[in-house]
UniProtKB/TrEMBL annotation:
GO terms for biological process: recombinational repair. This is ATP-dependent helicase. Pfam families: PDDEXK_1, UvrD_C. PANTHER family: DNA 3'-5' HELICASE (PTHR11070:SF55), UVRD / RECB / PCRA DNA HELICASE FAMILY MEMBER (PTHR11070).
């Protein structure tokens, strides 16, 4: 948050909320009196007349709202006025912040990743989190900062790919990045946190979701109270919220799995009362599924403990006038412990079970006065020790610099690193491919390596083309022709590799042509065979149209084509990539050598069976994935 606030203040001096966060954060810790004086200075610079209540806490808080149209605190930071208006420490911090902002704004012309790295360096936030991690933690503590740097790098890469190479100015990129972060906050509840690592030397407070897959010696699960865990607040459903997708349209509906979203069946409804009963029952099933989801979440929580599990609830919350009491989950856990103890094999201990409050008893927590120092001191009682240690380190550094003199070799290494970085920036980034690809994508890499790789890296939704729909419809018909039934995966639909088929009106003609072909009189041993197989580090997925047994004990893999045969040997070599993958896949599925597997294309419109003279080897197919730029292009 500190890094983002500083980025906002650098890119937009009018960002009042960011300015307040920076000024009152753990780095500068500007007090209320100095804030009021700075606010008065901002009003004076804006031409306003200071008034008595202009510096009240309420006015300052309202002015810090992101939507407030007020004077600019950044102007007052840059020109704070007379030092006498502030405390000595406050004035020193304001002037230091002004110099810091000026220096960071000079980096707006640098690449976006470098700007963020410079903000981190100036804030010293990496050192702070590593110091807080303790001795022996190594590089631990910066996981979230590093994850944010990855987000920035990915954003910069996408914007560069969309708008062309950077022109040396990143001011627009900073604004775009901040807008991107705002959208992520409002739509996706913020960026995904970095993966957590178990730390044995500290207490870690985290959500159940983020604890999945991790284990600790001791785990405490709190708030097993009524209305909290499980929650009694019903989630919105598709019946009342237009933003919720109806279960019938969801991939996780009950028909697709035992734990799916319940589907409301109204096929037997004949009157309004029956419909009302159906809706009520559907609401009940949705609510039960919500509770079941929270029960599964509880299971995740209690199974994180390797040795000791602590669970607790409470009667009184900080707010509220009615006691919450234990939740059903906590009562169930207590019942299990009591039953095991009665059976002579206790599985746990009930340390304390508070009786319910008396009727009419007031919440004792509502009258508690919570006091805290502001701005908070992140070092608290350790401040004197830390400052004394910092002074010793600074003294040692000054002594070392005096003894060793100028580090010419270090400067030379920095220059070499900067030159190498500049050289990398002017070169196009490597075309890394996704970890999973379809066979049609491999064919595309053979035909247009660079273009296909670029499209795979930046996938965009596209309107279904008529020729692709025709190919899909024909393949579905052939499947039924042979009496086979199966489900299609959208990414693996047959015909996806066809790039030149005709109008969908020709479907009937294609069907007639196929029934007159020699393949229509043969019986396949397999139809529409899905497969997944690794090629290098990439998982390739596809679907074999048909496999026919040969008299010599071998097999022929046939791929139906609704387009025209390839023109020229080069086009044939590129199309043969598909058959090469199918040959390897069927050999692996059937457990037979590749030499016993034959392959062919059947072009339905032309009535021609085309058998390539030679198929690419496994190494040549793998080269398409390791060399997406096209240097190792098949057939070249």
């Amino acid at each position: 948050a500190e890094v983002v606030a500083m980025l906002r203040l650098i890119a937009d001096p009018t960002a009042g909320a960011a300015a307040m966060r920076v000024l009152t954060g753990s780095r500068w810790r500007l007090g209320a009196r100095d804030l009021a004086a700075l606010w008065q200075r901002a009003r004076a610079l804006d031409g306003g007349v200071p008034v008595a209540d202009a510096c009240s806490p309420e006015s300052i808080a309202s002015a810090a709202d992101p939507d407030a149209d007020t004077v600019c605190l950044a102007d007052a930071i840059a020109d704070p006025g007379a030092a006498e208006a502030y405390s000595a420490a406050g004035y020193q911090r304001i002037t230091a912040l002004a110099a810091e902002l000026s220096a960071l704004r000079a980096h707006l012309g640098h690449p976006l990743g470098d700007l963020v790295a410079e903000v981190r360096r100036v804030l010293g936030i990496d050192c702070e989190v590593r110091a807080a991690a303790g001795v022996g933690a190594g590089w631990a503590g910066t996981e979230h900062l590093d994850a944010f740097a990855d987000v920035v790098a990915a954003y910069a890469e996408r914007t560069d790919a969309a708008t062309g190479p950077a022109d040396g100015s990143t001011a627009t990129s900073v604004t775009g990045l901040l807008a991107y972060l705002d959208v992520a906050e409002s739509v996706e509840n913020g960026l995904a946190p970095a993966p957590l690592a178990v730390a044995r030397d500290r207490v870690q407070v985290l959500t159940v979701h983020s604890a999945k897959g991790l284990e600790w010696q001791v785990v405490a699960v709190a708030h097993l109270s009524g209305g909290t865990f499980p929650s009694t607040a019903s989630k919105s459903t598709w019946l009342t919220d237009a933003g919720e997708l109806p279960p019938l349209l969801r991939g996780d509906r009950a028909a697709a799995g035992a734990l799916g979203i319940p589907v409301m069946d109204t096929s037997d409804v004949t009157n309004r009362k029956q419909l009302s009963d159906k809706i009520s029952e559907h609401r009940r099933r949705l609510e039960q599924r919500r509770i079941d989801e929270e029960r599964r979440l509880l299971y995740v929580a209690i199974t994180r403990a390797e040795d000791t599990l602590l669970v607790s609830g409470h009667h009184w919350a900080v707010t509220g006038i009615k006691p919450r009491g234990p939740s059903d989950f906590l009562c169930e856990i207590k019942a299990v412990i009591d039953d095991s103890a009665a059976a002579g094999d206790p599985c746990g201990t009930v340390e304390h079970w508070a009786p319910p409050p008396a009727d009419g008893e007031l919440n004792p927590l509502r009258d508690n006065v919570i006091e805290a120092a502001w701005p908070p001191d992140p070092l608290a009682e350790r401040r004197n020790d830390v400052e004394r240690g910092a002074a010793l380190v600074a003294q040692a550094l000054r002594a070392g610099a005096t003894e060793t003199g100028i580090d010419v070799d270090g400067w030379a290494a920095d220059v070499d690193a900067l030159l190498a970085e500049r050289a990398r920036l002017v070169q196009p980034p490597p075309l890394a491919l996704p970890g999973q690809l379809s066979v049609s994508s491999l064919v595309g890499l053979a035909r247009d390596p660079a273009g296909t790789a670029q499209r795979l890296r930046h996938r965009l939704p596209s309107r279904p083309e008529p020729h692709a729909l025709l190919g899909n419809a024909f393949h579905a018909w052939v499947q039924k022709f042979y009496g086979a039934e199966c489900l299609f995966d959208l990414g693996d639909l047959p015909g996806a590799a066809d790039s030149d088929v005709g109008d969908s009106a020709e479907l009937a003609a294609l069907q007639r042509a196929f029934t007159e072909s020699p393949w229509a009189t043969r019986t396949p041993v397999a139809v529409e065979v899905p497969f997944e197989m690794p090629i290098g580090d990439t998982l390739v997925r596809g679907r074999i149209d048909a496999v026919f047994a040969d008299p010599d004990g071998g097999a022929t893999v046939v791929d139906w084509k609704t387009g025209e045969p390839p023109h020229g040997p080069e086009a044939m070599r590129q199309a043969a990539v598909q058959l090469a993958v199918y040959r390897s896949a069927w050999a692996a599925l059937a457990g037979v050598p590749e030499s016993s597997v034959r392959t062919a294309f059947y072009y339905v419109r032309a009535g021609a069976t085309v058998i390539p003279d030679e198929l690419p080897s496994d190494a040549e197919v793998a080269d398409l994935l390791s060399d997406p730029g096209g240097v190792g292009r098949v057939g070249v």
